[in-house]
Design a protein that fits this description.
By secondary structure, the protein is an alpha+beta fold. 56% of the residues lie in helices and 12% in strands. It has helices at 4-25, 41-58, 87-102, 106-119, 132-137, 142-149, 152-166, 184-193, and strands at 30-36, 62-68, 73-75, 80-82, 175-178. Strands 2-1-5 form a three-stranded mixed β-sheet. Helix 3 crosses helix 6 (142-149) and helix 3 (87-102) crosses helix 7. It starts with a helix and ends with a helix. This is Gamma-interferon-inducible lysosomal thiol reductase.
């Protein structure tokens, strides 16, 4: 039978263990922002080959934000956008902005962006492919996407993406920011070993 002193030691140890577990679970997450473009081959490669394969493992430690704009530019307060890879890229960036705006869960956002970056590239060969299947896969109604795309909200979301991107004036797309800062070494390593 345990004495009261032994019981107190065991209970104290258990409480300290619980406090330690809670302290570990409250560690701040790493903030990762990805400045990218919907038709950029390097953006597609990074999302499909670096981010997506390790996402489930890393997701408990990361707050992710996707910024689909890249080396695009707006004119006349968003009346027109010019994109590095042409008008279809502008369309893809805007569609992604609309869907990402509607999705709160970052795991679902990663699923959507990965799907879109795979499927939308095929739009160049299939004029009817705008990522509808990816929106459906994550439970977003395509009518909402079209309505957002055609509205001031779609313009505002792209202007916000432009403002975020302009803070860093990326020389390369995708640009990966850690805790709101750009670091060239982290950028270079992320493109080949995001998990690392």
């Amino acid at each position: 039978m345990f004495s009261i002193d032994v019981f107190k030691v065991i209970l104290s140890s258990y409480i300290l263990l619980l406090i330690d577990i809670n302290a570990q679970s409250e560690q701040p997450k790493l903030s990762v922002e990805i400045l990218y473009e919907s038709l950029c081959p390097d953006s597609i490669r990074f999302i499909k080959e670096q981010l997506y394969p390790v996402w489930k493992e890393l997701s408990p430690y990361i707050n992710i934000k996707f910024v689909p704009f890249g080396k695009s530019a707006s004119y006349e307060n968003g009346a027109k956008f010019i994109c590095q890879h042409g008008p279809k890229e502008c369309l893809g960036n805007r569609i992604q902005s609309c869907v990402l705006n509607a999705l709160q869960d970052q795991n679902v956002q990663v699923e959507y962006v990965s799907c879109f970056m795979d499927v939308y590239k095929k739009h160049q060969r299939n004029e009817q492919e705008f990522g509808q299947s990816c929106a459906a896969k994550v439970g977003i109604n395509w009518d909402y996407v079209i309505q957002c795309h055609d509205s001031q909200l779609g313009t505002d979301l792209q202007l916000q993406a432009e403002a975020t991107t302009a803070q860093f004036s990326p020389k390369f797309v995708p640009t990966i920011l850690y805790n709101g800062k750009f670091n060239q070494q982290a950028q270079d390593e992320s493109l080949n070993n995001f998990r690392g």
